[in-house]
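call fold(seq) -> tokens
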Amino acid sequence: MIRFLKKIRHLIEAFFVWIAFIFFHYILPFNISVNLGGWIGRHVGPLLPLSNRARSSLRKCFPELTSIETEKIVVGMWDNYGRLAAEYANADAFWDGKTLRNIEVHGIEHLKHFQEDGKPGIIFTGHTGNWQMITLAAQSVGFDLTQMYRSANNPWVDYLMLRCQKLAVKNVITKKKGGPKGLLSLIKRGEHALLLVDQKMGEGISVPFLGRDAMTAKGVARMYLNQNCPLLPARSERLHGSHFRVTFYPPIEFTPCGDHPQDMYNLLLKINTMIGEWVLERPSQWLWVHRRWIDS
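ret:
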């Protein structure tokens, strides 16, 4: 009975997600689609029970915020997420294989050196702005990245999301189907990948993020320490509407001390600190609904 009810719920969810995709991708003009996504996000998102998790995390990270300031960030987060959903279905509006639109790119010299240094590499980022813009910016200079994809729990929604993912990313590794092993094989072949490293991981280690202990995936640090794999930070920022700035920073510089667990912790702390600084600058562009912290 429980399985049957779960299938019914998945079918209902998938129906509305597919209807939204059809409207966003095939029926509505791009600008209207994105503005509608933002409107739905602003007006519906804050009413969802999920938003209480975001409010709680904001209060714990920034106890000095007033309730009005907290709510402004929550509304802004949902506006960004609603727009992102519409953009997710329309990657060709930013990159059609020839022309890059509405994305200004900074630090392209770091990306090109990263591409041409003869080594494998991982570009890491967080759920800020619209992270797909990083992949599109890389494609605009002939740099195809493989991206790790976390499968949705709903199989019908997952099929659609993977289809949308492949509009922007040519090569995708799913976490359910040997993702970590596939990533390791890719790095050993001398290729490059894009990873989002700011989600809670049960199998990670506890490292501070925004001043609070957060379970943090070890994979990116393990690749650096064990495979001599350079790490390149990249950030996406929504400037206004569907206009973005993508910044590629210099590769991470880190000198191991020889104590592997301590090196792992120190490197992940360096990465978490960098992403935390991005969140502090634009808090409404990060997904606060994640269960990012041990006590969330």
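The longest helix spans residues 2-27.
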